[in-house]
Amino acid sequence: MTPSPRIPWRKSLLVRLVLTSMAITVVSVGATSWLAVETTTRAIQEERGQVLSDDTDILRQVSGFAATHTDWNGVQTLVRTLSHTMGRRIALTTETGYPIADSAAPSTALPARASATVEPLNTDTYTEPGAQLAGIDPRAVGPYLLPAAERAQVKTLAEKRLACMRRYGSGGSSRQSPSGRTVITPDDGEASVPLQCADGELNTATRTEQKALDELNALIASCPGLEQWRGIPVAGAGIDLVPGSNTPASDNARRLGGSQRTQSCVDSARRTQLDPYVAPRARLYLGSLGQQPAGFNLSPANKAKIVGVTGLVLVITVAMTAVVAIRLVRPLRALTAAAQQPPQRHARVAVTTKDETGYLAAAFNDLTARREQLESQRKAMVSDIAHELRTPLTNIRGWLEVTRDGLLAPDPDLIASLHDEALLLQHIIDDLQDLAAVDSGTLSLHREPVGVDELVAQVVSAHSTRAEASGIRLCTRTDPGLWLEADPVRMRQALGNLLANALRHTPEKGTVTLTAKQTGDLAVLTVEDTGGGIAPEDLPHVFERFWRAEKSRSRRTGGSGLGLSIVRQLVEAHGGTVTADSEPGAGAVFTIRLPRGTEPERLSP
């Protein structure tokens, strides 16, 4: 990590900003203190219209609490919050005067008269903000409150109908009622929808609503004069699904002995049904938190002093801020202009100062250089991936086309050749997936105690057939009792990639030696071959993706170009390092260094 540069305190932006703030503060505090001594005044004036609006809002919120709670438990928190927000004293009492909640201290006398009565079953403060309408508050939904699943079901139906309406040129908007039901409001204000969209599904009661409507119809049927209509539903789908509605219930309601009489019965039944779900009626008292202050009273001389001092402070503040801001903004503008250049230009900025902005400009230039390098690497990697995948795909396609045209019979040799190409393609893809997992941080390691001698034996056994076929001798030297805390599968993959790379570059009758030994707290694993070695200028690149020392080497003899890169990523994921050493003509040595593990405890028989 690069250490932070040491900046002289005279050039530090922090020091300059602090000094500027101190100067402005001294001027402002001095001017304010002088004005406070010269012109002492009290200037608080209450706006009657605002107070009335606040009182209406308080009633609206308290009524909402009553409409959604079966009692007044917990209303004290709402009362205190509203009192703090509105700056008003708020108190609630029962009809008999028993206190329910009060924002004032205990034993504080109530105002002479109650400001309003909170009764959500008779007063609607929700439909029109700022007004009190006769009727049931729509927030008092009681048993009509939909669970989450039914809300989602009704919302889906509403969206389906709205899409249909728009398709037939009759747009609208949707909203969610307090009960959770989604309702549609046509743009033309009419309740009708196009005939093609009137499927009736949206206005069909859900299970919860139907249960509530059945209870409501039972209450309606008990009204005097309607006993003969028992069993005939008066309240049904449509507007009856919105409990606070003051619209006549349904066509059945108007047919049953007069709409006014039936509506009165429906309203009474609704209130009876919702009564257990709302808080009892209460009185709301509103008052002032303290004495009303005197108005603002200044002489012309004091007003002139305020204007003059304010103007002077403003001029000094603007001047000092402008001087500092210009010096700050100039290099920042240069950085902004460079950052807004097209990415392919990799623009730099001139470093003209030795303060924080100067070091920021230098860091920006360094970041640009790294981005340019990463962009070049990205382009090269994309080209290499395409190049790696093209050869096996071209071979497979060529052989298949020859076979399709009847020029070659699909004999076992051809199928084996196509299978080899597919395996090569799969090998490249698996390597890319491993690298992508490492890059994205999703590579998972399942660590456990691993015996190094067993690990070496497994890797050698997996490559012994290939070594014998190539006429190469495999040798191993392992210190006994050496353990690792590692993922055995990933370690076999890393060590196997090194061994496969060594076999690939070792001529016939050569030797590949795999050694494992202990050096302090480290386990050191080496793979040494007797091949042609690696040139000194190529050693820094051997672990790069798709890199090959011999560019003309084919994939069948040169691998995918990803094996050594995967080795480095897997070893580093285990907290270790991997290095390569070589002399041309004397072979190569790849060394893995990993933290040692401890031998697991053996259970006594």
Largest sheet: 5 strands, mixed
The overall number of domains is 4
Using the 3D structure, state the CATH architecture of the largest domain: 2-Layer Sandwich
Please give the share of residues in helix.
40-55%
- The gross shape turns out to be extended
Q: What integer is the average pLDDT?
A: 77
Total number of strands: 15
End-to-end separation in angstroms reads 53 Å
Q: H/E series, N to C?
A: HHHEEEEEHEEHHHEHHHEHEEHEEHHEE
Give the DSSP E fraction (strand runs of 2 or more residues): 5-15%
Please list the strands of the largest sheet in the order they lie side by side: 10-12-13-15-14
Spans where pLDDT lies below 50 across 5 or more residues? 41-47, 246-251, 253-258, 291-297, 551-558
CATH topology annotation of the largest domain: Heat Shock Protein 90
User: Cα-atom Rg, whole angstroms?
Assistant: 42 Å
